Amino acid sequence: MAVKMFEEDEKVLEDYSLTSEESKRLKEIRDDFEEAYDDDAEGIVTDNRYNFVTKLTQNSVKKKNLGLTTSDKIDKIVTNRFLAIPIFAILMIGIYYFAVKIVGGPVTDWVNDVFFAEIVGGNVQKFLEGAGTAPWLTSLIVDGIVAGVGAVLGFLPVIVALFLCIAILEDCGYMSRIAFILDRIFRRFGLSGKSFIPILIGTGCSVPAIMGTRTIENNNDRRMTIMVSSFMPCGAKTAIIALFAAFFPGVWWYGPVWYFGGITAVILSGIMLKKTNLFHGDPAPFVMELPEYHMPSAYNVFRATYFRGKAFVIKAGTIILLMTIVIWFLQNISTSGQFLSWDDASADSILAFVGKKLSFIFKPLGFGNWMATVSTILGLVAKEVVVGTYGVVAGLGDVEDNVAPLIQLLSTQFNPVTIFAFVFFNQLTVPCFAALGSIKSELGSAKWFAFATAYQIVFSYTIALMIYQFGRVLVLKEAFSLGTGVALVILIVYLYFIFRPDRTKENLYEKDLKNKKVLN
Fold first, then answer.
1. What is the CATH number assigned to the segment(s) 2-67?
2. By CB distance 3.0 to 4.6 Å, which of 34, 142, 156, 190 could disulfide with 270?
3. CA distance 228 to 239
4. Sign of dihedral through CA atoms 463, 469, 470, 472?
5. pTM for this one?
6. CA–CA separation, 38 and 17 (whole Å)
């Protein structure tokens, strides 16, 4: 019974009505053990039971080879208290550098500039013109469908390379170790190691990541993980990241910064939310079996990469295709309902009209032009639409000097600071409609859904605001403004919520004790 009390077994604590002094003393003992062992009470008991069983088997079971296995030797290094995180960081930096810079440079440029622009776009245009197709229909197919879908699929090599590397780490057994390693870090910030599994899945797609939170028994942990799992750059967001890679040639940290930025956003959100009454309580213990290291199976790696890449292509062939058609019509029809010539389309179209009316929302974030506004709002349907919108507006079928018009267009609207604000906002804000549907379904409450989406919007907006306003002053050397002052106030508020004492944790035990007395 003493062990059960130490583990905070609710049934045992209800059966044995402890006095206030006894409960206080029990809590002090538990806190001392958890601090000494750097683990929760249940984990300490479980670990000691395993150690006891190990000692018994060592005395009764004789083994010829008592040396460490290969997996044990590797784990001595990759799960080391001091080396684990640096090794993980180096691996992820290498993966993103390979995917975004090595593959995303020459391969993506060739796919965009040569394959879709010259080969596909050029031949389709020649065929349609030779067949006597109406000019507006030719423009719809070449400048709308081919340009929009091509802009998205042009980044497929980057996404496949990223999925391939992650699939190799998953299949060899390393990613299981990362969940174990990050459990210790996540627990300090209010999240369980179980939260890392959905977050890891989120690098492929947010929908299965959100559905994967069902394995988390603690309701508070599960709700919080649902809210933050979409902060990681999924395949669609990776296309946005790769879109701006050309502006940072030779910068090795450009790709990894978004991955670790997502993890940082998850941790900061965990710290702040866990200190509120909505999410208070200790995170659930995390116990998992670590598989032996082994050579990755080519079949398993190919299968995982294929299905993740296939989902991206299917979305490009369905949702993105329909959206590019809609965007083309909005881009080429005026507010009076007349078709516009290409020269007038950007200024007088319905798309431009709507974008200009709503651009004030994003002006404090540094990208208050109508194109960025429209692409961001339409990105709520699917994040790939952010890239597809620019593809339609730029008209990728028209290439000059082998440089994509898309990059030329972006260079007139963004600088390094606004790029970071734009990408981080799209990465951290509410995900696509499909993921939003999963969030609503998993939370099971309209109020929780409203709270989750409101938090994501406010968090992403304020982070992007601080990035732009501080970057404008510190990097671009512009003058301090009202927006900078607002960003400074927001930073102070965030620091307060991050470092304030956890009053819910201090009062949690006393509240539980009162509730138990009422029940008794």
1. 1.10.287.1770
2. 190
3. 20
4. positive
5. 0.73
6. 29
CA distance 88 to 175: 9
In 212-339, alpha helices (H): 219-228, 235-243, 254-274, 298-317, 319-332
Distance of alpha carbon 427 from alpha carbon 351, whole angstroms = 23
User: 27: buried, middle or exposed (CB in 10 Å: 19+, 13-18, 0-12)?
Assistant: middle
CA distance 198 to 449: 18
**pLDDT tens digits, one per residue of 321-340:** 788 888 888 888 887 777 77
| Cβ partners under 8 Å of residue 339, min gap 6 | 136, 332, 333
| Phi-psi region at 23: left, alpha or beta (left = phi > 0; alpha = psi -120 to 50) | alpha
**Interatomic CA distance for residues 405 and 12, integer angstroms:** 69
User: Residue 333, by phi and psi: left (phi above 0), alpha (psi -120 to 50) or beta?
Assistant: beta
The values of phi and psi at residue 484, to 5°, are -65, -40
The two three-digit tokens of residue 63, written as one number: 């083994």
Spatial contact of 385 and 426, defined as CB atoms under 8 Å apart: no
What is the C-alpha to C-alpha distance for residues 342 and 332, in angstroms, rounded to an integer? 7
58: its two tokens: 């060592």
DSSP string, 148-212: HHHHHHTTHHHHHHHHHHHHHHHHHTHHHHHHHHHHHHHHHTT--GGGHHHHHHTTT-HHHHHHG
**CA–CA dist 75, 396 (Å, integer):** 49
| Count, residues in the chain | 520
* Structure tokens that stand for 444 in this block: 């099971």
Model confidence pLDDT, tens digit, residues 446-496: 999 999 999 999 999 999 999 999 999 999 999 999 999 999 999 999 999
